[in-house]
């Protein structure tokens, strides 16, 4: 696998319409990756805009997260922790995204460890959570958009985690467990987050919706 520049990530988000339709702006300081299981069973790097086909056996559940260029991000130390979400920007349908955004995953306490790199992109550092600390606020739910609701854009984003959440859950600041109509800007304010330092996305084409 070959890495993707932060400029290419940025451009893909604009080309897809995610910026400014879903996210006002994205100026990534790092290259953020996920890996998924392809139809042949191999773990594969997900690059921005990858089209996945679950009915052909491709599995949208990320099996790994990784990051390149962390030294380009500000206020990062060896002890910094990170949080990651996955959402559907086009729920329930691309031409009627009345449930935007629908959250499919949210978890914190990710960190990088020197020498622990991605299994699919050796130049990237793997983001991991100790098993004892892995307690997703929103456990992963399989993206299963209904047929004939258009091309759904599934966004994953990486944020530096405020230190207070190293030992407290997001509910400690009143975050709602509801997963639909998730207002990202209000959520960022609630948790005290800066802009995403990286993001990527994949699409699932369910057929006609225009």
From TrEMBL:
Q: Please name the InterPro entries in this protein's record.
A: PEBP-like_sf, PEBP_euk
Protein name as it appears in the record: Phosphatidylethanolamine-binding protein
- Please name the source species: Apodospora peruviana
Q: What is the lineage of its organism?
A: Eukaryota, Fungi, Dikarya, Ascomycota, Pezizomycotina
């Amino acid at each position: 696998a070959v890495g993707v520049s932060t400029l290419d990530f940025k451009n893909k988000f604009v080309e897809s319409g995610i910026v400014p339709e879903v996210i006002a702006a994205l100026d990534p300081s790092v290259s953020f990756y996920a890996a998924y299981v392809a139809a042949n069973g191999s773990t594969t790097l997900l690059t921005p805009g990858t089209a996945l086909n679950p009915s052909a056996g491709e599995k949208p559940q990320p099996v790994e997260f990784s990051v390149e260029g962390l030294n380009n991000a500000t206020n990062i130390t060896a002890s910094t922790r990170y949080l990651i979400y996955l959402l559907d920007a086009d729920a329930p349908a691309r031409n009627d995204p009345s449930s935007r955004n629908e959250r499919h995953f949210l978890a914190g306490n990710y960190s990088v460890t020197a020498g622990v790199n991605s299994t699919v992109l050796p130049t990237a550092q793997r983001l991991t959570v100790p098993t004892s600390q892995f307690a997703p606020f929103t456990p992963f739910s399989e993206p299963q958009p209904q047929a004939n609701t258009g091309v759904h854009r599934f966004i994953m984003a990486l944020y530096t985690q405020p230190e207070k959440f190293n030992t407290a859950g997001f509910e400690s600041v009143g975050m709602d467990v509801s997963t639909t109509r998730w207002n990202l800007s209000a959520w960022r304010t609630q948790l005290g987050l800066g802009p995403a330092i990286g993001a990527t996305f994949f699409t699932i084409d369910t057929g006609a919706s225009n």
